[in-house]
Give the backbone structure.
Amino acid sequence: MDKSWMDKKRGTREYVEGVKRFVEFASLKARNGKIPCPCVKCVHSQLHPAEVVRGHLNNFGILSNYRTWTLHGESQSTTTPAEVRSSHVHENLNEYGNVGGMLHNLFSMHDMAPESMDEGPSVQQPAEGPSLQQPAEGPNDDAKKFYKMIEDVEKPLYKGCTKFSIFSAVVVLYQLKSLCGWSNKSFTFLLQVVQDLLPLDATLPKDCYEAKKIIKDLGLGYEKIHACINDCMLFWKQDANLEACKFCGESRWKEQNTTSGEPNNASSSKGKKKASKMLRWFPLKPRLQRLFLSPDLAGYMKWHATGRTDDGIMRHPADSEAWKMFDTKYIDFSSEPRNVRLGLASDGFNPYGILSTSHSTWPVVLVPYNLPPWMCMKRLSLILSLVVLGPSSPGVAIDVYLQPLIEELRELWDVGVEAYDASSKNRFQLRAALMWTINDFPAYLDLSGWSTKGMFACPSCASNTDSRYLKHGHKFCYMGHRRWLDRDHPFGKKIQTLMVLKIRDWLLCLHRG
């Protein structure tokens, strides 16, 4: 088949037609209606229906070196099995990227040598805030563990090894485990065999449990919390052992269809039960603690108090009246500039990128507003807190899924958590406050509970909303809230001129048509 379309730019006619021909060809060898997806995101590791694969290829692109479609039914006569396996492994390994760069994206400080923690640049301290004048103390246990991980990033796997460090080897092997679906037991056997193949001075975890502990130290861990299929409750804390929702009575577990004609049951083929709905919660405290483990980043976290120009011009949320009023009302909190001010943003999106598929996943993201304006809204500064999986939007029931985050925010406000400030080399009690929520108008309904439609749709006007129900249109209109320009306003003449030109063009088109 002609494969020149693989080198074309995505979205071009040749590329779209080539994707269509590829999907038609691959569908002939479909298994249960699904085929391996060769897009740069899935890398053959996922089976999807043909239309989903088509959408992935159009959105993400196809693997450029996948020239012989052996996984989709093409003959291997031009490519040896060894070459196929080799290219497939390299496609997967290319997905890992630079582990050092990954740490830089996560923490923006991976390239600091651990020795520099004691020689970090000093940051100007504000006059107020007695907690900043505490005597210098050493890092706490969490900080020491993280600095040890930074050392392992640069330490070679064994003497003379230039390709892998201890840390990158564990990350690459563990990602292979995830991509290929290896069990914990098989992964432990693999680690033991690799350890025997390497020199004696090579350092690798002895089993899957130790490898998981190393990965967890990255701060990438999350907790899975089961939820009711109807969004009634979370099976969490005192309700963690319930088998059914205490409000609607629906089972906690997903029913699996069996091909043998037996009745449905809640167990998978491996005997493990699958939750009908899941919430993924990324704990906030360790992420806030990591913000202060770099001297440079810890200094930026105090920028709003030590580096901001207070000349009455609005450049940052710290210049707003809401921030100043908050400082006046909660003096104990504002006297410590290292306390974190957060904004919460949430909205639904379709992660599959296919417009015909009805799916809505809701991430909840936190923004640390302590950072200067050129940093706080960067992608690397945003903190993912919750992921509410679809396929449907949680709607006003999103407050059920916000429970873990709200409880954590309450604890951070009332008690705080111990953190180590690498810039001033002391420990302090880190507290946090949620200042704002960021959302569009439909999401405002879900986060605030205020109905954004109907008679009192405006949250500012409330009961004074000037609304009128259209009897024949069966909807509300808000004509009283329109604002008009003055008759002699210069914008009015420009708009009138544009309207005349548009009408003229429309009439010309009718005349020619």
Observations:
- The chain has four domains: 4-92, 99-122+132-220, 282-448, 489-513.
- The first strand starts at residue 34 and ends at 36.
- The chain has a mean pLDDT of 79.
